[in-house]
Design goal:
Layout lengths: L1 H23 L5 H16 L7 E3 L2 E10 L10 E12 L5 E4 L3 E5 L2 E4 L8 E4 L4 E11 L5 E5 L10 E6 L4
Antiparallel strand pairs: 1-2, 2-3, 3-8, 4-7, 5-6, 5-9, 9-10
Length: 169
C-alpha cells in the first residue's frame, strides 16, 4: 500500500508540473500580440533615427537600423546589421569620415563596426554629402542600441550619440 501511495504521489506531482510548465509557456493571444505591436511601433518612433546631429559643421544623420541578410556571415551567436548614414560637410575644408568612427552600445557593451565590402569611408569635399552604410555584428540578444560617433583619432570622450532602438527587418 505504501508503494502505491508513493507512486500515486510521484505521478500526481509530475502531471501537475507538466501542467504548470505548459500554462507558463503558452503563446500570447492575439490581443496581446496586437498590444505588443502597438508598443513596438511606439518605441520605433521614439528613436533618434532620421535626426541630424552636428559636430563642428558636420551634420550626421542615421537613416535606418536594419538586419542584413548575408549567407556568408557565419559569426556564431551574432547577427549582421546595417546602419544607413547621411553625412553633410558644411565646412570650407575637406573632412574625412568612415564607418570605423562609429560604434554601437548595448548597455555597457561596446560593439565596433564590422568590416564589410561596402562600408562607407571617404573624404567629403566642402558643401558635399556622403551616403553610406556602417555594419555591425550584434549579439543575438534583444535590446535598444545607441549609435556613437567617436573618431578614431579624436578625443577620449564620444562626440555624438543617437538612440536607434532595435534593428528592423
Amino acid at each position: 500500500m505504501k508503494i502505491f501511495k508513493r507512486s500515486a504521489f510521484i505521478v500526481t506531482t509530475l502531471i501537475m508540473s507538466m501542467a504548470l510548465l505548459t500554462a507558463c509557456s503558452e503563446t500570447p493571444k492575439k490581443e496581446n500580440q496586437a498590444a505588443n505591436g502597438t508598443t513596438a511601433a511606439k518605441s520605433t518612433s521614439s528613436t533618434d533615427l532620421n535626426k541630424a546631429k552636428v559636430f563642428t559643421d558636420i551634420s550626421i544623420t542615421p537613416k535606418s537600423f536594419k538586419l542584413k541578410q548575408d549567407d556568408t556571415f557565419k559569426e556564431k551567436g551574432k547577427t549582421l546589421t546595417v546602419v544607413a548614414m547621411h553625412i553633410e560637410n558644411k565646412t570650407k575644408s575637406d573632412f574625412g569620415i568612415g564607418a570605423g568612427d562609429f560604434y554601437l552600445l548595448l548597455g555597457k557593451e561596446k560593439i565596433a563596426s564590422h568590416g564589410y565590402y561596402d562600408s562607407f569611408g571617404d573624404v567629403i569635399k566642402p558643401s558635399k554629402t556622403l551616403d553610406g552604410n556602417a555594419y555591425f555584428a550584434i549579439p543575438d540578444v534583444k535590446g535598444d542600441y545607441k549609435l556613437v560617433y567617436h573618431p578614431v583619432n579624436g578625443p577620449k570622450t564620444p562626440m555624438l550619440e543617437w538612440s536607434i532602438g532595435s534593428p528592423t527587418k
